[in-house]
Amino acid sequence: MLELLPREASEPAEGQGEDALPGLRLSPSRLRLPVALLLSAASGLLLSLSLPPAGLWPIAFVAPIPFLWVLRGAGPGRGAAAGLAFGLAYFGALLYWILLFGELAWVSLVLASSAFAAVFGAAAPVLWRRDHPVRSTAGLAAAWTVLEWVRGAFPLGGFAWGQLGVAQVDSPMLPLASVTGVWGLSFAVLTCAGLLLHALERWGRGARRAAAGAIAVSVGLVLAPALIPVPLPDGAAIDVASIQVDVERVEHLGGAAEDVAVAALNVDRHLRLLPDPPDLVVWGEGALDPGALADPATVAAVREAIAEVGSPTLAGAVTTEADGTQRTETLAFGPDGAVADRYAKVRLVPFGEYVPWRGFLERFIEAVEQIPVDRTPGERVRTVALPGLPEVGTPICYENSFPSIDREMVRRGAGFLVLTINNASYERTAASEQHLQMSRLRAVENGRWVVHAAISGISALIDPEGAVVDSRGLFEPAVMRGEVRASTRTTAYTRFGDWVPGGSLLLVLGLFALPRGRARPRREPPPLGERPRTLVLLPTYDERHTIGTVLDGLLALPDRVDVLVVDDGSPDGTGAIVAERAAADPRVRLVERERKSGLASAYGLGFRTAIDEGYDLVVEMDSDLSHDPAELPSLLAAARAHDVVLGSRYVPGGSVTNWSRPRLALSRGGNRYARLCLGFELRDATGGYRVYRREALAAILHPPLRSEGYGFQIELAHRAWNAGLAIAEVPITFREREHGRSKISRRIVVEALWLVTVWGLRARLRPRRG
Q1: Do 432 and 452 fall into the same domain?
Q2: Which of 8, 201, 285, 543 is catalytic?
Q3: Do 222 and 286 belong together in one domain?
Q4: CATH number of the domain bearing residue 364
Q5: Residue 15 lies in a domain
Q6: Residue 521: what pLDDT?
Q7: CB 195, CB 166: distance < 8 Å
Q8: Catalytic residue among 148, 329, 353, 397
């Protein structure tokens, strides 16, 4: 999928910005920040319409487009701001029902959720590769998927509400969840949005075929999953009755009296099953709250009603032990009315069923007192056993938003799932519809029937393909009855779990490591004059045994060259030898420095001299005969068609003599590492035998270089590459010096590797603007 689009190009049409929208010469990098934030917020607000109450699932494929477009021209900081604006609008609209519990709760939850969108916004520009737009789109989808997964786990156990994939329960894409879970749907949705943005951009530049290809891939991503078969149940049919009561009738009672009244409503509905008892009865979460279970008469009435009907019953309860420990549980009553098994909720609702950091927060927030008891989570996810029935998974309310819990229950043998819910506190908002969509997704993920049993509605029977077979509305007293089937078959998602977030993380890391293309396209250099003025720079320190031979070789070349020797106060008399030669030949000059000041500063002095004096070509070269002067004409010839010429040991025809294997391996490895980090295609970026055109050198040296040794040579090559200069590598033979000692030290090598790493990270964290 990543590179199938026809004529995918990395560069825009001539004269048009790379991020231009169709028909507009407008780049997102030129947008004023308020406009970028408004576009991002509008994108998030539009995306919220893909989920209930609107439930317009196709919008999810187009809503992110303005946000993604803004990110194309952003740096990490601007991207984070755009992501925050997107998240505030999306989660603010989606979670409007949290306002029922106060502005503080809504603001806190929206901000916490939006922080992940801000992280995505900061990461997106870092991941984007202009020369690989389709691959980058997949990388952005992967980043979003990873962050959705992290948001579902952190902090405080996570908050998974609002995943992009949940909006797709009515789309042809839904069967994909049986293979990938919700994560694959989220990945596909954002991939489609990115491809559609790519199509818009390509269409606007006249590349209709490429645009059509992007659209075709998007349509395929939506439609193709419909062909994925979801395993059908292979077990016996089970007659299930789910009881729903109107808690609004008794909520005015409050406290224990309300708990007793709710239990009585469930008992009344339960007894209506006497003429035709089902195989299983379900009471929603909150059917047996602490006030009811603390009343002996109510407990007796519950057990008697269950025994009289004679059907196993699952009931949502809040139990309190003798030591005051309180748990949210599903109690499994046998046909005799006795508790046969139970499941304790393992994923509690922060600030709903317990208060994190209670001792600290209660000093500042009075609302903490509304949750007087911190409930205790169950020890582990498990199934529930009932007489005469297959094992059943009983996730409780909030737990159903976490795919891993339902999946673990199915892995442990659950033949079907019964979700007990209490959404009465959310009144008639869209919270219940949003929750129902998650149950539909859990059904497909695991290939299981789901009994979505809400004490006050919405209740539903959901088949393994995610279809709602039957349902009851909010606050509608009813007994919903239907047939479900158990299953022992498993889906790919049940077997392999959250492999998509793991794969997405690898994709993100790989894309981050992928080097960027050139910042500017390669340009053709202008022609040189017939006899370009050339200055050879020779830094020296203790080179008395070789400097004379090097000068003789250079001055004897058919190409006339001038030589500038920069000597760092050599104690062996190198400077005196050069001074004598300079007195005899005006083409040789000497600059003597008082002390050893380093290779980079010596070349820097020579570069400035060459530029100031108008030389056409500037040559870097060692003075120890490791670079043969006789090979210089081939480098100068290549400079007629290139801005920079590198004498290369590692292109065909190049070689190294008299080096140990470890040193050769270090040199080759360093060059490979530089190519990986910096993204250039140069085989030998550490060599010091080079030719620069004056104009190219002036461009490379701004701003001034700060590195030394190997790092200095790599930085020059990196800057030349990024500047779009024409670079040639000409084979040379590097000969290990026979006199004196090499100036290369362990410190210089380590410094070079460190600098290459820093430059590589900087190039990725400070993306180029289009």
Answers
A1: yes
A2: 285
A3: no
A4: 3.60.110.10
A5: no
A6: 63
A7: no
A8: 397
- Which CATH number covers residue 712? 3.90.550.10
Tokens standing for residue 425: 């506190």
User: Is 397 marked active-site?
Assistant: yes
Q: Which residues contact 766 (CB under 8 A, 6 or more apart)?
A: 75, 76
The residues, any chain, with a CB within 8 Å of residue 150's CB and separated by 6 or more, are: 116, 158
Q: Which of 485, 518, 552 marks a domain boundary?
A: 485
pLDDT at 244: 97
pLDDT at 364: 83
Indicate the SS3 state at residue 182: helix
164 and 288 share a domain?
A: no
pLDDT tens digits for range 199-233: 998 887 778 898 899 999 999 999 999 999 999 99
| Domain co-membership, 225 together with 269 | no
Q: Which domain holds residue 361?
A: 237-485
Does 438 fall in a domain? yes
pLDDT at 8: 43
Please state, in angstroms and as integers, the Cα–Cα distance from residue 653 to each residue in 622, 671, 730, 734, following that order. 20, 17, 8, 11
Q: Is 565 inside a domain boundary?
A: yes
At a CB cut-off of 8 Å and minimum separation 6, what does 156 contact? Answer: 350, 356
pLDDT of 21: 46
Length of the chain as a residue count: 770
Q: What residue ranges of the chain have pLDDT lower than 70?
A: 1-27, 29, 515-521, 709-710, 740-745, 766-770
Q: 468-472 and 562-567: which strand pairing?
A: unpaired
How many angstroms separate the Cα of 619 from the Cα of each of 418, 571, 647, 744? 78, 26, 11, 20
Which is the catalytic residue, given 8, 329, 345, 620?
345
**Active-site residue flag, 285:** yes
